[in-house]
Design brief:
The complex is a heterodimer of chains A (about 900) and B (about 375). With about 900 residues, chain A is α/β, with parallel strands linked by helices. Chain A folds into six domains: about 1-100 and about 660-670 and about 840-905, FAD/NAD(P)-binding domain (3-Layer(bba) Sandwich); about 105-155 and about 640-650, no CATH class; about 155-195 and about 210-225 and about 570-630, no CATH class; about 245-345 and about 500-560, FAD/NAD(P)-binding domain (3-Layer(bba) Sandwich), CATH 3.50.50.60; about 350-495, FAD/NAD(P)-binding domain; about 675-835, 3-Layer(bba) Sandwich (FAD/NAD(P)-binding domain), CATH 3.50.50. Chain A contains 27 helices and 41 strands. In chain A, helix 5 (about 175-180) runs antiparallel to helix 6 (about 185-195), helix 14 crosses helix 15 and helix 23 (about 695-700) runs parallel beside helix 24. The longest helix of chain A has 19 residues, at about 540-560. Chain A starts with a strand and ends with a helix. Chain B has about 375 residues and is of the alpha/beta class. Chain B is built from 19 helices and seven strands. A four-stranded parallel β-sheet of chain B has the order 5-4-6-7, sandwiched between helices. In chain B, strand 2 (about 215), helix 13 (about 220-230) and strand 3 form a beta-alpha-beta unit. Classes of the chains: A alpha/beta (about 900), B alpha/beta (about 375).
């Protein structure tokens, strides 16, 4: 189905000032106009200009009302981000097929608020600023864009499945922050991580990194070092000076019991949502297991302190040394606070159940670590045995080594394959000279003089799998042996200590964990929620963080008296198929992951210094640049914008659409492009930093530009006091464009005046061939520039620009044609007035309109039908027609509109 | 030929008098009295007498730097060449350098009956063949060698290196016992009679030898054979510069060189570069030698700066300044060797290093080597 009425409808191609003017004229005559613009906003080149000559009015101030008028006019239908693809028929009866490119944003919902843009991790050169500024992959063309709607610059399919994000319990935007690191935006990377994880520096060190296990790059060569990159980002921001979000207080209070990762995550999220949060911590220091369970060499206390410090700055009060159930009852808390979150972790040790376990010299692992972490030391003997095979056992063994034990060994009852400790931790243990005795378990401890002296062990063999799925260890009768030992640390596992919750009647599982509703995270007592190890039994930091965050969402709903939001179903991390792996291997060369350096073993075991040395920025960027998602141009589909969009306007699956319209006539107003001046090597554009083009200059002086209107030169961002313009760069040149671009003499003069207005006193020199001030008031304008704006005109076409290496000042070589002397002129910034070229090749092809030698629309009758193209019913105006300035383009546009009206009324 | 025709032929009447030529001209930079724009202006005003008796007419290096950037496409070097014909007819010839020795040698080659002994320098270790399809043009190298012995320039080393390269590729070229100067300098000084004699002689011996391909290590000979001979004589063979030949072989035969550890920079000879547009071939050859690191000067390719003098005429203090300026640029790259592929570039640069007069000026000492010599070293053996 096509729309429009051939006799009363017009297609205007190009939404610049000429297209807008023609559309408004036609619309005001009562005709239906379809205004098609390729970019996401109308406005065209004029929108890029700072001021217009010869009045020096703000370009945007004149243009914006016209854009608004065009977008709100009842007779104008805007098709931005669209192109006319096919035109058939003839004058009075054209049928046009328009392709609307997918912006991947539902424009009927988008409010143009910009929340999406803030989160987008993909940074691209901003075309509107001539590449001088940056924009995101989701963007509006410029602040005053019409329509003010966002589009996603999506160019390629992401080559990976972003399995990292799905595998992370907190669903951290891994691909997003890795992209930011690759771009060198370290602070932005930290902020993006912090959005889903209040403890990036902590997790950057001790997370078990389920993301790395599923990383799709791992299917090609090696998985990304995601955890190490997270640590890098965290180490490269000053957390203590990070700005705080604006928080709107709700006036409601929430109590949190336990300051471990679960409690901190819940506190962080609730504080940001505006709740008054108090955390009760039994130990003298906040941090829970992070503070007392993880040794300093893996997680420095200072790192933890800083991240907790930021949470406190959000308004969270942490009361340490307050044991709930003893110093204060839950009932008392419940009276004062609207909701309670219990995240007390699993700090209870487990007993061996072996004779002699209570002897002096036999310790429990968790309490051993707690003592070391709080006091900085503990007594260990020369011969230390650690019982167990988990991460705690490993931590105990490495800690004992650092406390001075000469011989440390781990005694584990199953084989190496069953050790729950991570493989890298086990490797580190062996590197540090700690022995591992497998398939062995202690059966009795003996004392001498009241102190532990020997340990009797028995060898084991593996039997059928037990309830945990691992083979059951079976003692081998008669294999007992005795070994001298003076310290035993039993690291068998942790259990929650939950007796204190029974006062409220909270139900516990047989293992002592708190039972919750998995959907709401609520316990059986109203207003009391729980999460982390206290619910699941011992698990990982990131699991506890995720649990705290989910509980915070539920508490928010509960306190707002809203139903608990249904959580989206967890996505299963996807793998690349075999074909996809083969394809990616072809496209991207194999690259090993960059390893973090470590302290040498001999040195590091002497104290508690951090073992892993962070990446250097170069190493981090190299590693981050391996991420498959980041290897493409444009949007990487991290869905950060979708997460942030309050209007729910993102539609990643959106497709291009086609629309057909019937029109009686067509106006071509596709405007201009800039001629690439880099082949004019004598001027050094692209090589000499302080040689820029005039349109770049316009962006530098425009308030909406990358420097917010400060004219700063590229090399050192200095405000130049002496600038020079070179005319006819590529214009009036047999080797480039033979024609005069028509506007450069005047726009250079205007730009020189603007420099003076920005910074009075600025000296401008304009090198010209002959001054083409062909317009009303133009000659006076040039006289004013000379008299009032410190502008000098030199008649010469410079032949070479060199550079002073010390200050990056360009040196212009020219012949003073009045004295025939070749001279040099040192200046601080050179502006090349580059040739302008019509941008109409594609449109002309579709319209079947012929072009002249220079690429402008061919006009068969230049005298009496100067706006009629060679094809009847199609008219041209603006720069696509011939070189001209804005007032001329507008005049032509009105002329073209009048011609259309004439033809539609039956004239010829 | 009169001035009016010259103006027509060289599109001089399109001149906008913008002065771009003068601001590019390497001479104008040092000699404030020299302006190509003014020369053109004189011609357009019809000041023929002033023009042909203007001493500066013989200063132009015909380096083509101005011509390539002229917005009006005026062929200034051609304008100069043709105007010099008028000047020569009026008895003008500029200041010959080296007391006119080189011009006299060219004259002797063209007009005397003295038999040349062109193989005196030739060592037996190179294989040549009288019946070869390929000829290596030796040109003036045997004459330059004794004239510039004190600098010291060994132009025959380049000839030997070229022979070594061809031999290593399995080519036994013809080296002709009776070849003569290509006539380049005579042509560009407006001495058309000498040029014609030399061109006709060379064309005749080449035709007689039946070679299919003529290889040059001197860009001037190459340019003259390629662009100028066709206007005067008939030549039925392909002409090539050795750098082009090597670049072609690199592609077709995947030549491999030994490692030569050297940081080098490269001087584009005007004839090879701007006259003929060959910028990539020598660079491709350099890139193919393992261990060679090419660091470019500020002005390269079409923006390259001439070695400072041409046709051994009007070699003055400005010419010296151009050479010193260029050498300073070469040294600024940090390269240890300045590679060029023109025997004349080498001669002029070495001369600038030796004869620096009382005022020493900036440090300009740098090894100058022909590309052919570098390649010969990389072949080894």
């Amino acid at each position: 189905m096509s729309r429009g009425n051939g006799h009363k409808s017009v297609l205007v191609i190009g939404g610049g000032i000429a297209g807008i003017q023609a559309s408004l004229d036609l619309a005001n005559m009562g005709l239906q106009v379809y205004l098609v613009e390729k970019s996401p906003s109308i406005g065209g080149r004029m929108a890029q200009l700072d001021k217009t000559f010869p009045t020096n009015d703000c370009a945007m101030c004149i243009l914006a009302p016209k854009m608004i008028e065009a977008s709100s006019h009842a007779n104008i239908e805007l098709y931005t981000y669209s192109e006319a693809e096919e035109v058939s028929g003839e004058v009075g009866n054209f049928r046009v097929k328009i392709r609307k490119r997918s912006p991947f944003v539902d424009w009927s919902k988008c409010t143009g608020c910009g929340l999406c843009e803030e989160g987008c991790p993909v940074i691209l050169p901003n075309e509107f600023d001539q590449g001088l500024g940056k924009r995101k992959a989701i963007f509006v063309l410029f602040p005053q864009a019409v329509p003010k709607k966002y589009v996603i610059d999506k160019r390629e399919e992401r080559p990976c499945k972003a399995a990292c994000k799905d595998a992370c319990p907190a669903h951290t935007n891994v691909l997003g922050y890795i992209k930011l690191i690759a771009e060198g935006e370290f602070e932005e990377a930290y902020k993006l991580i912090r959005d889903t994880n209040p403890l990036p520096a902590v997790c950057g060190r001790i997370c078990y990194a389920p993301c790395e296990e599923v990383c799709n790059r791992g299917q090609l060569d090696e998985p990304m070092a995601i955890r190490d990159l997270k640590r890098f980002a965290a180490d490269h921001v000053n957390i203590e000076e990070l700005e705080l979000p604006t928080i709107t207080k709700t006036g409601k209070k929430v109590a949190i019991v336990g300051s471990g990762p679960a409690g901190l995550a819940a506190a962080n999220d609730l504080a940001i949502k505006g709740y008054g949060v108090t955390v009760f911590e039994a130990l003298p220091e906040p941090g829970g297991m992070l503070r007392v369970g993880i040794p300093e060499y893996r997680l420095p206390k200072e790192v933890l302190r800083k991240e907790i410090g930021y949470i406190q700055k959000l308004g969270v009060e942490i009361r340490t040394g307050v044991r709930v159930g003893k110093d204060i009852t839950l009932e008392e808390i419940r009276k004062e606070y609207g909701a309670i979150f219990i995240g007390t972790g699993a700090h209870g040790g487990m007993r061996l159940g072996v004779e002699g376990e209570d002897l002096s010299g036999v310790m429990e692992g968790i309490s051993f670590l707690r003592v070391v972490n709080l006091r900085g030391k503990a007594e260990v003997g020369k011969r230390t045995a650690v019982i167990g095979g988990g991460n705690t056992a490993v931590d105990c063994a490495r800690t004992a080594k650092r406390l001075g034990a000469e011989e440390v060994r781990i005694v584990y009852r199953r084989s190496r394959a069953e050790m729950p400790a991570s493989a890298e931790e086990v490797a580190a243990v062996e590197e540090e000279g700690i022995g591992i005795e497998l398939l062995t378990t202690p059966t009795r401890f003996f004392s001498e003089n009241g102190r532990l002296a020997r340990m009797e062990c028995i060898r084991m063999k593996l039997g059928e799998p037990d309830a945990s799925g691992r083979p059951r260890p079976i003692p081998i009768e008669g294999s007992e042996f005795t070994t001298p030992v003076d310290t035993v640390i039993a690291a068998l596992g942790q259990v929650p200590e939950t007796e204190f919750v029974t006062e409220l009647g909270i139900s516990l599982s047989p293992r002592g964990t708190i039972g919750i509703d998995p959907k709401t995270r609520a316990t059986n007592i109203e207003g009391v929620f729980a999460g982390g190890d206290v619910v699941t039994g011992p698990a990982f930091v990131i699991d506890a963080i995720a649990a705290g965050q989910k509980a915070a969402r539920s508490i928010d709903c509960y306190l707002k008296r809203e139903p608990v939001a249904v959580e989206e179903e967890e996505r299963v991390p996807e793998k690349l198929s075999e074909e996809e792996v083969a394809d990616r291997q072809k496209r991207y060369p194999s690259q090993k992951r960059v390893k973090m350096r470590e302290e040498p073993t001999q040195e590091r075991v002497k104290d508690f210094r951090e073992v892993s040395l962070a990446y250097t920025p170069e190493e981090a960027i190299e590693e981050a640049s391996r991420c498959l998602a980041g290897l493409i141009e444009g949007c990487i589909e991290c869905h950060e914008c979708e997460k942030r969009c309050e209007a729910k306007a993102l539609v990643y699956t959106m497709q291009d659409e086609h629309v057909e319209v019937d029109v009686g006539a067509i106006i071509l107003a596709t405007g201009l492009d800039l001629y690439d001046v880099s082949p004019l090597t004598e001027y050094g554009y692209g090589k000499i930093k302080n040689v820029i083009t005039a349109l770049e200059y316009e962006r530098l002086t425009a308030a909406s530009g990358p420097t917010f209107g400060e004219l700063r030169r590229p090399s050192d961002e200095k405000i130049p006091e002496n600038i020079a313009f070179i005319q006819c760069v590529g214009s009036r040149d047999f080797r480039h464009k033979t024609y005069c671009s028509a506007v450069c003499c005047m726009h250079a003069t205007k730009e020189a005046m603007l420099a003076y207005e920005h910074h009075p006193g600025t000296k401008s020199t304009i090198f010209y061939i002959d001054m083409r001030a062909v317009g009303k008031g133009f000659q006076e304008y040039i006289a004013r520039a000379q008299e009032e704006y410190n502008v000098t005109y030199i008649r010469s076409r410079p032949g070479k620009i060199e550079v002073t290496p010390e200050n990056d000042n360009p040196i212009i070589w020219y012949e003073d044609t009045t004295t025939s002397e070749t001279k040099k002129f040192e200046t601080e910034l050179v502006i090349l007035c580059q040739a302008m070229i019509p941008r109409n090749e594609e449109a002309a092809k579709i319209l079947g309109v012929s072009l002249d030698d220079c690429g402008f629309v061919e006009i068969p009758d230049k005298i009496f039908h100067p706006l009629d193209t060679a094809r009847s019913g199609i008219f041209a105006c603006g720069y696509a027609h011939s070189p001209r300035d804005i007032p001329d383009s507008v005049t032509q546009a009105s002329g073209a509109a009048a011609r259309v009206a004439e033809v539609l009324a039956g004239g010829s | 030929m009169n001035l009016y025709e010259i103006i027509q032929d060289t599109k001089t009447h399109y001149c906008l008098e913008c002065g771009k030529c003068s601001s590019i001209c390497p001479i104008s930079r040092y000699d404030p009295q020299y302006s190509p724009r003014v020369m053109i202006e004189d011609a357009l005003f019809g000041f023929e007498e002033e023009l042909i008796h203007n001493h500066k007419l013989f200063s132009c290096l015909t380096c083509y730097a101005c011509q390539l950037k002229c917005p009006s496409d005026v062929d200034y070097p051609l304008f100069i060449r043709k105007t010099r014909e008028l000047a020569a007819a009026a008895g003008e010839h500029g200041d010959y350098a080296h007391s006119g020795t080189l011009q006299s040698l060219v004259g002797l080659m063209a007009r005397s009956s003295i038999k040349q002994r062109r193989f005196e320098w030739f060592s037996n270790s190179y294989r040549t063949s009288e019946s070869s399809d390929v000829m290596l043009f030796i040109g003036c190298s045997p004459y330059f060698e004794p004239v510039f012995e004190d600098i010291p320039v060994r132009t025959l080393d380049i000839a030997e290196a070229s022979l070594k390269i061809l031999n290593s590729l399995g080519i036994e070229p013809l080296v002709h016992p009776d070849e003569k100067c290509c006539g380049h300098d005579a042509l560009w000084l407006g001495d058309m009679e000498t040029f014609r004699i030399l061109a006709e002689h060379n064309a005749a011996i080449i035709k007689e030898s039946g070679v299919k391909k003529l290889i040059f290590f001197c860009p001037e000979g190459y340019r003259t054979f390629k662009l100028d001979y066709p206007n005067y004589v008939k030549l039925d063979c392909e002409v090539m510069h050795i750098s082009e030949f090597l670049a072609q072989r690199l592609e077709t035969e995947g030549l491999r060189f030994n490692e030569v550890k050297k940081k080098v920079t490269y001087q584009d000879p005007c004839r090879l570069g701007r006259h003929l547009g060959i910028y990539d071939a020598p660079r491709k050859v350099l890139a193919s030698i393992p261990g060679i690191e090419l660091v470019e000067m500020e002005h390269i390719r079409e923006d390259s700066i001439c070695c400072g003098t041409s046709c051994f005429t009007n070699c003055d203090s400005y010419s010296k300044q151009i050479r010193v300026g260029r050498l300073v640029e070469a040294k600024a790259t940090g390269a240890e060797t300045l590679i060029t592929s023109c025997p004349k570039c080498q001669t002029h640069f070495k001369c600038a290093m030796v004869a620096r007069g009382e005022e020493k000026g900036p440090e300009v000492e740098i090894e100058v080597m022909d590309l052919a010599n570098l390649v010969a070293n990389a072949i080894g053996g």
